[in-house]
Specification:
Length: 321
């Protein structure tokens, strides 16, 4: 029996790459897509049916899986409703626009026994995945600091489509500005590596834009019993700074990702560059992994886990207070 996929929302810019990956899965049938914007015309030919309203789509269809790729607030509502109707759900990062929605998503997943996965594109980067797994294994000693910086010059400035830009710049639908867009990546890595922090501090603001948004730069600092995480988010940065990112400081080594490789400086040795292994079949991208979980009955692990994503949501939320 094919796995029936419905896509709810097309305004999250990551959706187009995900659609290509889902379409490449031979056991998946693309049954329906819903979006209220003209973006629907770019996707309708891939699907059997198209709707302008995701709720009407769920009323009319019985998908096995729903991919939620709307704004962060709407995607949470889609996930909750879809799970209540029996579908398994993948939500494109972050988990939600606010903590209350994220908590309700996890509660619904548990109550309905549905699969809920939060997709983070960085999970499919072999070097970042290897860095986090090796750090968790203790290879670099006790981790006492984690750093991550993410961003670009801004959604409008880099040419994101206007429907994506519209909700990214809307704090209610996004959850914040650059803080919600990019600090979440570092927060979920930190949560996976170090767990729930004891304390979160941070600041955010509009430092460079001449139009009204909640924040184009943010810094989040998480305090753990024996570690600190420093996470930066920006919609102002020009180019890259060439520094390792992310970077793990351990008692036996300093390790980071540079140009797709691991740069590891061990105690008493010279820095070395290592090529990470390729991701194994079944874990090369989000749809592959999600389908593997469905087949095996496993729950998403690591940063893909909604429990880990909820910790990240709490971390980001603390900076907004």
């Amino acid at each position: 029996m094919p796995i029936r996929l419905a896509v709810a929302g097309l305004t999250h810019g990551h959706v187009w790459g995900l659609l290509e990956q889902w379409a490449a899965q031979p056991e998946v049938e693309l049954i329906a897509v819903a979006d209220p914007t003209p973006l629907l015309d770019n996707a309708r030919d891939r699907f059997q049916r198209a709707y302008v309203d995701w709720q009407r789509m769920l009323d009319a269809e019985s998908p096995d899986v729903v991919l939620a790729c709307a704004d962060n607030r709407t995607s949470a509502a889609i996930a909750i409703t879809a799970m209540q109707r029996g579908a398994h759900v993948m939500v494109e990062k972050p988990m939600a626009a606010d903590l209350a929605d994220a908590e309700q998503m996890l509660e619904t997943a548990r109550a309905t026994d549905r699969l809920l996965m939060i997709n983070w594109p960085t999970r499919w980067n072999p070097a970042i995945h290897a860095l986090l797994e090796r750090a968790r294994s203790g290879e670099f000693g006790a981790v006492f600091e984690f750093r991550y910086r993410a961003g670009h010059a801004g959604p409008r400035e880099i040419g994101c489509d206007p429907y994506f830009v519209a909700w990214l710049y809307d704090e209610h639908r996004n959850g914040a500005g650059a803080l919600a867009d990019f600090a979440c990546y570092g927060a979920v890595m930190s949560a996976y590596l170090l767990g729930e922090p004891q304390q979160v501090l941070g600041t955010r603001g509009n430092l460079t834009k001449d139009y009204p948004i909640s924040d184009d730069n943010a810094v989040l600092i998480a305090r753990y019993p024996k570690a600190i995480a420093v996470i930066e988010a920006t919609w102002s940065q020009i180019g890259t700074d060439g520094a390792p990112n992310p970077i793990v400081y351990g008692t036996e080594a300093t390790a980071g990702v540079v140009d797709g490789k691991l740069r590891i400086h061990r105690r008493g040795a010279e820095p070395a560059l290592e090529t990470p292994p390729t991701l194994p079949e079944g874990e090369r991208n989000a749809p592959e992994y999600f389908l593997k979980c469905l087949r095996t009955g496993a729950r998403p692990e690591g940063v893909l886990s909604p429990e880990i994503a909820l910790i990240a949501q709490r971390m980001v939320e603390a900076v907004k207070l």
